[in-house]
Amino acid sequence: MNSSINFWGIGAQKAGTTWLHDQLSLREEFLVPPVKELHYFDKALKYPSRSPIGIPLKKRFKNKRVREQALKDFKNSLPQLKELSFCLRYYFTTNPNDNWYNRLLKNSEKYTGEITPSYAILDPEDITRMHSMSPKAKIIYIVRDPIDRAWSHFRFSQRDSKTFHNSTSQIKNVIDFINSDSQQQRSDYIKTIRNFSKVFPKNQILIVFFDAIKTDPDGLMRDVIDFISDGNISINDSDSTPNKISNQSKSLTCPPEIIDFIKEKYYHQIKSLSNEYGNYFNLWLQKNYAGYGNQSLAKVTPTLRLKQK
After folding, report:
1. CA 303 → CA 253, 264, 273, distances in Å?
2. What CATH class is the domain 5-33+110-305?
3. Measured between alpha carbons, how far is residue 133 from residues 3, 23, 259 in Å?
4. Are strands 205-209 and 138-143 parallel, antiparallel or unpaired?
């Protein structure tokens, strides 16, 4: 099957994917859907994301999260008829199969793709389905210091809570959350990189660093656009990219015992990533664990292209 999909953003959750979606949607050369996170490839019940289209239509809008997100998407799409039509086709589908998905994203004139952070935890079988659908598509994986990402993920999970008590029971709740399968899968960058690079050629995978949204947003977007377009889009050096993070989690101070717990949990992964790839991974190691190197921002780049061995 021929596909018009040029790229997929696969995560990580709470690592700037909404920011990237918003920036690409502003460029006339790109087409990203008005619904961020289509959850097509992770719609099976085996995944924890609970895709809207994985729920039968008769039960779909009985789900509070689906109702809230659908209302938000429909409200945002009202000024544009095409966007409203997209939302209707997405939320009211009764048969979300490959043909439907391709028609939903079809556009022959623009670089087309979608960003769903839950794709980072896809198993090899579903990654292979992605490759079969569009074997030349580019994979964009935004990563964030897993210590910061885990705490941000917890804060996001508490978005409906009005209070946070630094009590023994609350500390246990945080630790249980951080140890949950869903959270751990989303912070297992090594596994995600390994699974996708076994299916897609490594030169079709770009690692993007969340840190660079703050430190070098222009360089980050130049790299992403150049990667997706194979250098076919000329980028104006005068373009200015905002560095304000979208969809931020609620503000909560992380208790010291939780910081220590997360640091111990992710030490070996951060060290392995630092040894394998350097770049911002070195800075994460240096920032979180005393006595590791003197890496500086002058030695890092906003993205990292994987190399074929």
Report:
1. 29, 26, 14
2. alpha beta
3. 6, 25, 41
4. parallel
Residue spans of the domains in the chain: they are: 5-33+110-305
Confidence of residue 97 (pLDDT cuts 50, 70, 90): very high
Tens digit of each residue's pLDDT (9 = 90 or more) over 257-276: 888 999 999 999 999 999 99
Cα torsion through 48, 53, 55, 59, rounded to 10? 140
The pTM assigned to this predicted structure is: 0.90
Q: Which two tokens stand for residue 303?
A: 């993205």
Residues 174, 250: Cα–Cα separation, whole Å: 15
Q: Which residue, among 246, 204, 250, has the nearest Cα to 227 in the 3D structure?
A: 204
Instruction: Write out the DSSP string of 120-180.
Output: GG--HHHHHHHHHH-TT-EEEEEE--HHHHHHHHHHHHTTT-S----SHHHHHHHHHHHTS
